[in-house]
Sequence to fold (654 residues):
Amino acid sequence: MKKSRKHILLLTPLFSYFTFFFFAPMFVLFVYSFWLKTSTGLVPTFTLQNYLYIFSKKLYPITILRSLRIGITTALICVVISYPVAYSLTFKYKKLQDVVLYLILVSLFSSYLVRVYAWRTILGSSGLINQILKYLGLIEEPLRFILFSPTAIIITLVFILTPFTILPIFSSMQNISIDLIEAARDLGANKFKTFYKVTLPLSMPGVITGFIFSLTISTGDYVTPQLVGGTEGLMVGRIMQDQFGLTYNWPFGSALAYFMIFVLILLINLFIGITTILKLRRKF
Amino acid sequence: MVMIQKDESALTLNNICKTFGEVTAVKDFNLAVEDGEFISLLGPSGCGKTTLLRIIAGFETPDSGEVLLDGKSIIGLPPFKRPMNMVFQRYALFPHMTVYENIAFSQFLKKRPRDEIEGKVKKMLELVQLQGFEPRRPNQLSGGQCQRIALARALVNEPRVLLLDEPLGALDLKIRKQMQIELKKIQEKLKITFIYVTHDQEEALVMSDRIVLMKLGEIIQVDTPKRIYSHPNSRFAATFIGESNVLDGEVKKVNTDHLLINADGLQFITNRNKDVKVGDKVVMAIRLEKVSRVIGRAKKSYENQMPGKIEDIVFFGSIVKYYVRISENLILIAQENIAEEESEIAAEENDIGETVILGFSRKDVNVYLE
Fold:
């Protein structure tokens, strides 16, 4: 008994921090989402009006769908390009592991904003890409659609989020012993079957973690869309920000936030469900 | 031209060489493994035994040489196309699958019908005495159980040859001993050829039909456990398998049926070894249990007898070892069974510091050219 109490003592600092600065505010937001905003102020009540309001104007569903589309695309690209990197670092280029992982971490050293601005410069009409294309004589006028579009958001977010997918996938692969791969080959599996039946399922926890990280961060991002997204790239984070900072419609902002949390949880479970159906994931 | 071998060897290795960079792992290795044989590759770590097994399994390609299975070369065939299966030292059970799925893995890949697979798995679990373990997961099993499942998983495929890479190495002593007997029984029952890699001489002695003793990538001796124990062919064989007193000496005289060898200023009589002549430097190896104290009324006489002072007596349960200093540089070890209460040996106990006479017969001395 004494032992377990000591253990709880060690958990207290983080637990209390989270209670005061995360769970409590989240609860307050949840309560707000059922209140009403009137011309005189906020009225404590219980109504689902805020949630229904999301579907009252075209703007909101469209923005939510766009955010999800950008988020899912970003997350899928991140996972798909990270997986081969993690795989080759684990199984093929073991000696390069430390160097490459360090380089990946280096990209996290600079501020997130700085990196978004850097991409703005690269993608801009007088930016690197347009300059090169022009120099090669492939285009006369700078391509304007690269910057200020959903594509620009995805390009930027993929760059920012790949470390969050490479690292969990890499770390889940560390537990796959070469013996398991050899055992599969020995038991009659060719390279593809070995990958599909052994390597992929065993690294699936990392894939799922990486997917969740990049999906939630990118879907909820509201800085990148403002800097490189333009009018075409309005995302739901910006609308929520406006509810709190501009129109003071806190109940609607809260409802929107909780709706997004709900949708993302649904999406993540759908993704996990798909991997289970494909027999890529099992309980350990 | 491929020469079809007419003998009955299931697996033939011809002139296998393998180097890793500067290191020679296997050097000009030749071996014919007979059908249904339990053969052990025995040697200290780094002797190339595991590399050899991996070459047979197809995980490594030899630099040169041939691997023939039933007379046909299998070099170049990937592991999944070789009718052989392997049992790994660390079990290598798939952690994301149940016991059933682990054992059935190869059968799923072969797309066998479901009831056939279920029947086979059941039979295999019976064979390794783990009936009803189908729904369990590897992390719910003990080390010994894991290795049995790994064995079942390898055997369900009915391999032509089963390769075992120190499969008992990770188990504790008691389970290891039990598994040795069980493995041997399973092998005798299924009559499958087993190639068993181990560094444990006892394991090799207990289970094998033949032992291949290896050192630095080369074969030192191939023989049955009995013969390799009683007639080790070299200093290495005499000391790696079992324990021996080893003496360096010089041949003084060669007679028609015996040799006179001088070692440490003492004269020893041994049986004739055809290879040696007067003046040769030789090694004599005598098994510990062949040396004994000369005591009691019977005073059994040995060709070689010498007095010495007991330096140490070590008790091992059923046996006892006497460390006896014969001369300044020579300590001989005599190993005796603890005899029954009333026998002569028990009656005559010696203490550290006492002088005893040690003796051994000339036929028990193995002589090698150095």
